Glycoside hydrolase (Gaoshiqia sediminis), 360 residues
Amino acid sequence: MQRRFWIKTGKVLIVTLLMLTAFGSSELKAADWRALTDFRGAWLFTVGDDPAWARPETDTGDWDRLNAPGDWERYYPGYNGYAWYRKTFNLKAIPKTKALTLFLGYIDDVDEVFINGQKVGQTGQFFPNYQTAYSVERRYVVPASLLKESGNVIAVRVYDEYQYGGIIRADRFGLYYDREQEMLRVDLSGNWKFSIDNFGDNHSVGLDDSGWDELFVPMSWESQGYPEYDGKAWYRKRFTMPTSLQGQDLFLVLGKIDDFDKVYLNGKLIGRVEELEQYSRFRRGNAYNLIRAYEIPKGLIKAKNLISVEVDDPMGVGGIYEGPVGIMTGDAARELLNKHRWSSSNNWNFSFWDLFRIVE
């Protein structure tokens, strides 16, 4: 059930946005994807395992050719273990955005993905802490700065424990651009400061965060050096607001966050999504699928600004993991939210006012 929360002036007014349409059903509307390249067809392939195979300059002269998607046991019957896929690709043009999305379908069992030698994601766990992820669709955020118009190399390391193996199947299979990013007036995807340590004032404008890690947003923290972390974490991002936008009806859009969040702008709480188990219509686990769009109170935005986000992830994937991320006008934000209506398993569709709560 979709929930949208934002702040009004004075007290913190948390608004849950739900419209109940009985007897109706709808799918979760996907982002507005446009394919930039399709990876279907022949890939270079070899069994075995060597970290050097992630490097673009690797000599692959003796590698086999194998079509993907499709399990490798069509060509290597009975093989279980490590193998690598590689492919060189070109792009006609790179969109003027900070991030693209890589779709690789379903991989049996564990994978690690590199583009131009840089790791962009991993799903499942290799030994010694092996964990299969054969049923999870692979989708990774790729910083646009990693790409060039020609001579890009994608390398996929795969481990298969038993039966089948490799890039099994895919609906989307390639690099895609989310045209919803064009709705942003200020694109805030990119490197954010990140910490799992609570210094007591993590939302303070004056806090020195120069020693914090840097993570790419949007992208899960598991794929960026925190593979098994569950709990609270903090993001911070400083940005400059164009003078032409100051004073307008604006929303801070943070895409999808797993699971719960509190969002501050210049030290002031402007919105949050939290567990509402006391309300029977809310089921645990819905929060990760919600688009966050928080209204920016008039007068709060300045030329120089700080966004700070506290994320609480009880289990599984964590963090600001999917975009768009940035500043939108009110009209654009409402259009975005209207596209992303969530349909529950009992085929009831929600997207209008349902619940209001005042938080002192």
Observations:
- The radius of gyration is 22 Å.
- The helical segments are 330-339.
- DSSP finds one helix and 25 strands in the chain.
- The longest strand covers residues 319-329.
